[in-house]
Amino acid sequence: MTCEETTTCGCDDRSSNSHQEVCQCDDDLPAKPYTALRVAYGMLLGEDDFRVLMANPRGKHMLTSAWLHGAGVVWGFEVCWEGTRQLKISPGLAVDGLGRLCAQEASQCLDLSAWVDKTAESSDRDCAVQTIHACLSVEFDSCRTRPVPTLADPCDVTRKHDDLSRVIETSKLALVRGECACPQAPYHRTRVLLGIDEPGPQDCPGDEALAARRCVAEMPPADRPAALLAEFRRMSALDSACLRPPSQTGCESLFPVLTASAPVVLACLEIKVKHQDNCTEVECVGISTCCRRALLPTATIQELLCGLAPGLIEPDHADDAGGPRICRESVRWGNGGSTVSFSVTAPLNKSTVRGAVRITSLRNRGWVEEDVIGVRCHDDDTRVEVELADPPAYEIVRLIVKGTGPVPAFGADPPLPLAGFEDDPPCSADDGRDAVMTFTNGLPGVEKVAQ
Asked: What does pLDDT average to over the chain?
């Protein structure tokens, strides 16, 4: 039974606040998360009281599962094409959009040829070969069982002397024509912030999240984790404030979806059918499970989140040995491109600098090493000036100051190899890091040379 078929919806106490009742039309399995049984000594409990007793925990479980976990497959429900007619679906467990468990304890088969015949339209028969798109889903179902004797009113001529005492919660498969609907992804701002979604046209929330993402990217690397966490909290708070359960005339719900949207998608099917002599033959079936959602255990999510952590978490700068570093913004070309200078954070050993500096430029036949005729240190050996015999011959120029290898630039105090630029990761006392800058638009005073 669905909400479209009745207006009672199982919410029998209409005197209470309507927004506090979960609209569920299955009287056998009521769900009222905000109504609890209050018992007192000597109270006479009837059928309605026991329904409230079981409806409260059931409603809480469904509500939290639907909002906090969403709909998806927990395990199983493998879909495969078997033989020439049968679609086989293995046992499995899923949670639907209303937080109900959809269990299938045995494999089930669907006769695709019979389904195509049943759903075919008159125009389909005119096609020799046809491709049909269909969506396979699983939805919640229940049935009554185990009759037991019951008390009956002797004045009721329609009375029955037994009733079914159990409700079995199960599931049923549904196959409908058409593409599977794309599930709506909530938390749009948060998804844009993390780069999963992109803002659309006239998308103010998306633009706000994109601005937050750019703000985080402009922060220094050491400050980005804290900045991202702050923006994540802000975007997710705004997203959650905008969430609302859907509404429908005659049926109010607390769930994130309506009953019609509660089934869980298992697979998207592409069925190639051949019609000939009033006979339908299924030639082949393409099965895609990319449209289904899987619900991962929390322990698995925790471990997956650690997968990229070594690449995202930089070592503490306290582990840096303290070698001298080049100030990137201090690099200056002068004298028409025949000199280049830069500053370092600590004094250098002058005898090690000359062999550590190289300047190259790129021509069609490969790299050309420019002729360095002198390297001088100034300002207590914290500023280096490199003099070339001639300006670099070609537009693409590379400045290399070695901090690795057999002849690195070395610090005077402390005596440690060059550690690259100021914003580079930490270095050890045994090996430093090369400082490399590439200039691609030519240098001041340097004319382009024919290659």
From this structure: 85
